[in-house]
Design a protein that fits this description.
The protein is of the alpha/beta class.
Length: about 120
């Protein structure tokens, strides 16, 4: 994967420091995007190796971003969504829209270092 960037699609600042620390430890930069326009601007800058999608964020935002990625996505860009384990329908919707991996928030937190590990 090399030196790359991680885009976080979220409006929740709570997880940012933890994700930023894990990304930096793996040589990755992190950019939080809080709007669709902001996401596409950051994505167009290139070198995006991973997109993290917070399913507890604004649903209109993440569904548009994930749906819009299908035709645009480069093979090296992986999309991982995370959300509440009890909301099975939400997790399934993220899978159906094209996320490569969908994790419960607990699993995401537990495996954060592994999720952000290059390779």
């Amino acid at each position: 994967m090399g030196q790359g960037r991680v885009l976080l699609v979220s409006t929740n600042l709570f997880f940012v420091p933890r994700i930023h620390g894990a990304a930096a430890a793996n040589g990755l930069g992190l950019r939080m995007t809080t709007s669709e326009a902001d996401f596409w601007k950051a994505y167009a800058e290139g070198d995006v190796s991973l997109i993290l999608v917070d399913l507890e964020g604004e649903k209109g935002l993440w569904t548009k971003v994930v749906s819009g990625l299908k035709p645009e996505r480069k093979a090296v860009t992986k999309v991982i969504a995370f959300g509440p384990h009890a909301d099975v329908a939400l997790l399934e919707e993220a899978r159906a829209l094209g996320c490569d991996q969908v994790l419960s928030k607990n699993q995401f937190n537990k495996d954060l270092a592994k999720v952000l590990k290059p390779g």
